[in-house]
UniProtKB/TrEMBL annotation:
This is DNA-directed RNA polymerase. Belongs to the RNA polymerase beta' chain family. One of its GO terms (cellular component) is DNA-directed RNA polymerase complex. Keywords: DNA-directed RNA polymerase, Nucleotidyltransferase, Transcription, Transferase.
């Protein structure tokens, strides 16, 4: 084969001559195989179009299935059909040219104005054309607006003909003064537009003639583009494109027969329209305004456009998307008894993934021993120093063992201690992919430490995650050093910890370290031995062990730490010389809090990770010993009833005052708002406050004896607003950021009065979940719930799309050795990464 340098590529519409030139067979039979199971001559899988059957030879090139590239055929349409994707261009052309003389509707002066650019464009040779077309379009900002105005020209400047009213009814129906323009009429019109006139419309007539948009010849793609599948039953199943082409030929045949038989025009026109429909859906089965073509099973056919478009299309799925080897995906489940930096990998997965072992004289004995294994962990492949690759089997193991030498590579199964990358979609930030240490375990799920779910935003309601096994030593080292879980505890975004204790572990920490918490010797021994500590702290005078002392056993002996809460001194914590002497371990110090950050910066990432690991096990155990549950009793607080009524009546009074002010026109409008809008805003704000007032009152009534309150206070689950909604009132519901107002004319429900200003009828809900909801309350609450429920997926879709575009735009940016950011072409994007050269991870540490 001769190598040629590609100078330029040009895209044009395909001409009838090109189709005839390309085609190796005219397809006339709307069928595929004959009764003997051989392709029918002139059928849709004519052997001249190539072969997919390994036993057959291509009748065009003589090649067999894998050698023959496939060849195009064609269908001759007895009546032309409009290419649906060009309908808009055709519409523009018809609008811009005279209905009688088909000249462009520009007057002499306009022609003179535009001539210089157009002439340079028309005269340019092929190489320059691309450029001059670009310039002509760019400089013709005015040109295009001029062209758009051409449809309003009433009289042809060339022949004086009065222009008709042109209409395009999607997708392919054109009307002139209400009369349908047939495809052949449009063809003739477009064919008589000169190349010079086309140039004014930005079309290069020497490469693409507009009449080609009206097709009399249709290309039939090679069979290997639309292979048939043989089912197990021996039955053949054809590709959707083949089905569609069968429909086209069948309609074409009927049309031909009817024309030959001299059928009435109406019948012919109907069939012609059907042919146009078949062609339209062949190109794009999601064309707006056209019924979807379906398979017998009612499944929509996947035709040409559907093959290319969208997430599962050729571009995004097959070209930008890549399948990867050395990866696994399954459901995740929690396991707090492995380290936060570990990943529980099912044995089944470990058996199927391999890591290369580079045989050296130093690991030779180890390599030999693992190669001799005939069950897990064993070697799957042997690649000799010379590059010969052999699958290790029972039959050749001895032979390979004898020949093993340094320089060979062994693909061994994944084992404990291997480094793996773990990922959850959507992959929104750097911490969505972290390196974990594999820990091979029985079962079918990946097991993940509870605290490691936070950066992934994972939970265990069926979430699945992906694992990748880095294959080269360089990749493994990078993963360990740059992507490790421990080193990622502090976020690169703001220098705050992103991994800490959550949920019931936080309750457990309170149970373990609250004032007065004490444990028997047995309990203390179990708590400590669960984290591999086999000595006890000094017992208290009564022989029990203080929870604070037990907790202190996992702290570094020289740790001095103090946390002062500006709002609530109950949260203050003092640790001196590795002993917790004041306060309990709350989420304030281990979450936003400084303790994890302090351990991370002063004792290193590993220590911070070990602390989270230990506290998780120990606090889990402490919560287990203490026991913890909530019930209706926690939420039914009779003392609240009076407060609740007072809050509601106060709120309603305030709303009433606002209404009075609005009615007697003493309410002043906020800048940029009408009085009515101001009233609505202020009423909404006033009614909204009721809930916050209620939460203050609620807080004053509650102590840590209330388990529901305890969960909230230690920041394990829920917030005070949840409690208010359960025990006091749901409060003002919001729809689109305001009070519900739509539904019926001037009212939300039909039996409210239009003049009704009662806050209850505009979403103020007095009742709570314990006492139950009245109908109107329930309805208002459902409106608010629906509003927020609909918002969520919408927001994710929008941000997901934004992410895709950002990734596409920035994927080849990199930070150079001088800390500047460059793109793949070496162009400078940013002189200093981040603009300030500050690493937030290190910045927050003192
Ligand atoms: Mg989930
Ligand atoms: Zn061939
Ligand atoms: Zn004219």
């Amino acid at each position: 084969m001769q190598a040629e340098l590609i100078d330029h590529i040009r895209f044009t519409a395909i001409s009838p001559d090109m189709i005839k030139h390309m085609s190796v067979a005219k397809i006339i039979v709307p069928d595929t195989y004959n009764d003997d199971g051989y392709p029918i001559d002139g059928g849709l899988i004519d052997q001249r179009l190539g072969v997919i059957d390994p036993g057959l030879k291509c009748k065009t090139c003589g090649g067999r299935a894998k050698v023959c590239p496939g060849h195009f055929g064609h269908i001759e349409l007895v009546r032309p059909a409009i290419h649906p994707e060009f309908a808009k261009t055709i519409y523009l052309l018809l609008q811009s040219t005279c209905k009688d003389c088909h000249r462009i509707l520009l007057n002499e002066k306009q022609v003179d104005d535009l001539k210089p650019t157009i002439e340079s464009f028309v005269r340019a040779d092929d190489n320059e054309k691309e450029l001059s077309l670009q310039t002509s379009i760019e400089s013709e900002g005015k040109n295009m607006s001029l062209i758009k105005k051409l449809k309003t020209v009433k009289k042809c400047p060339s022949c004086g003909a009065v222009q008709g009213k042109l209409k395009l009814e999607r997708p392919t129906f054109f009307y002139m003064n209400g009369n349908r323009l047939k495809a052949d009429e449009i063809h003739d019109w477009l064919a008589s537009i000169s190349n010079e006139d086309l140039a004014y419309l930005g079309i290069d007539g020497t490469s693409t003639r507009p009449e080609w948009f009206i097709m009399s010849y249709l290309l039939v793609p090679p069979v290997n583009v639309r292979p048939s599948i043989t089912l197990e039953s021996g039955e053949r199943s054809e590709d959707d494109l083949t089905h569609k082409l069968v429909d086209i030929i069948r309609t074409n045949q009927r049309l031909e027969q009817d024309i030959d038989a001299g059928a009435p025009q109406i019948i012919i026109d109907d069939l012609w329209e059907l042919l146009q429909y078949q062609v339209t859906t062949y190109f794009n089965n999601e064309t707006p305004g056209v019924p979807v073509a379906r398979h017998r099973s009612t499944r929509p056919l996947k035709t040409l456009a559907q093959r290319l478009k969208g997430k599962e299309g050729r571009l995004r799925y097959n070209l930008s998307g890549k399948r990867v080897n050395f990866s696994a995906r399954t459901v995740i489940t929690p396991d707090n008894y492995i380290g936060m930096d570990e990943l529980g990998v099912p044995l089944k997965i470990a058996e199927n993934l391999t890591v290369p072992l580079y045989v050296t004289k130093w690991n030779f004995d180890y390599a030999k021993s693992i190669l001799s294994n005939s069950s897990y962990p064993m070697v799957m492949n042997h690649i000799s120093k010379e590059g010969v690759r052999k699958r290790v089997a029972d039959t050749n193991r001895e032979e390979l063992l004898a020949a093993l030498k340094p320089g060979d590579i062994l693909d061994r199964q994944l084992m404990d201690g291997d480094i793996v990358l773990f990922n959850r979609q959507p992959t929104l930030h750097r911490l969505s992919i972290l390196a974990h240490i594999a820990h091979i375990l029985p079962g079918n799920t990946f097991r993940l430490h509870l605290s490691a779910t936070i950066p992934y935003n994972a939970d265990f309601d069926g979430d699945e995650m992906n694992m990748h096994v880095p294959q080269t030593l360089e990749a493994q080292a990078e993963a360990r050093l740059l992507m490790g879980v421990s080193t990622s505890i502090v976020s690169p975004r703001n220098g705050q910890p992103v991994m800490f204790a959550i949920e019931d572990i936080v309750v457990g920490m309170y149970m373990l370290t609250k004032d007065g918490a004490s444990f028997t010797k047995d309990e203390a021994a179990r708590l400590l031995s669960s984290v591999d500590i086999y000595e006890l702290p000094e017992p208290l005078k009564n022989g029990t062990y203080s929870g604070k002392d037990i907790f202190s056993m996992i702290l570094p002996e020289d740790l001095n730490f103090e946390y002062t809460d500006k709002k609530d001194d109950k949260n203050n914590v003092v640790i001196k010389k590795g002993k917790l002497i004041k306060g309990y371990v709350n989420s304030k110090i281990v979450k936003k809090g400084k303790l994890i950050l302090y351990l991370y910066s002063e004792y290193g990432p590993e220590k911070a990770k070990d602390f989270i690991d230990s506290i998780t096990i120990m606090a889990g155990r402490a919560a287990y010993i203490a026991g913890m549950s909530i019930s209706m009793r926690d939420y039914y607080i009779s003392a609240l009833e009076k407060d609740r009524e007072k809050i509601i009546s106060n709120t309603l009074n305030e709303a009433k005052e606002l209404l009075d002010k609005y009615r007697n026109k003493t309410l002043e409008a906020l800048p940029g708002y009408t009085k009515k809008q101001t009233y609505e805003l202020e009423v909404f704000a006033t009614l909204n406050i009721a809930r916050s007032v209620a939460s203050q009152v609620l807080l004053s009534h509650l102590t840590m004896d209330n388990n529901a309150m305890l969960m909230i206070a230690v920041d394990a689950r829920g917030n005070i607003l949840n409690f208010v909604q359960i025990a006091m009132m749901l409060g003002q519901q919001s729809v689109r950021g305001g009070r519900p107002s739509r539904g019926y004319d001037g009212r939300v429900l039909p039996y409210f009065s239009r003049k009704d200003k009662n806050p209850m009828n505009k979403g103020f809900v007095k009742s709570n979940f314990v006492e139950g909801l009245e109908f109107v309350d329930y309805y208002m609450h459902a409106m608010g719930a629906r509003d927020s429920a609909m918002g969520k997926p919408l927001v994710t879709a929008v941000s997901g799309y934004m992410m895709r575009r950002l990734v596409n735009a920035m994927q080849d940016f990199y930070i150079d050795s001088d800390l500047s950011v460059k793109d793949a072409g070496g162009a400078l994007i940013e002189t200093l990464y981040g603009g300030d050269g500050i690493d937030p991870v290190k910045e927050n540490m003192k």
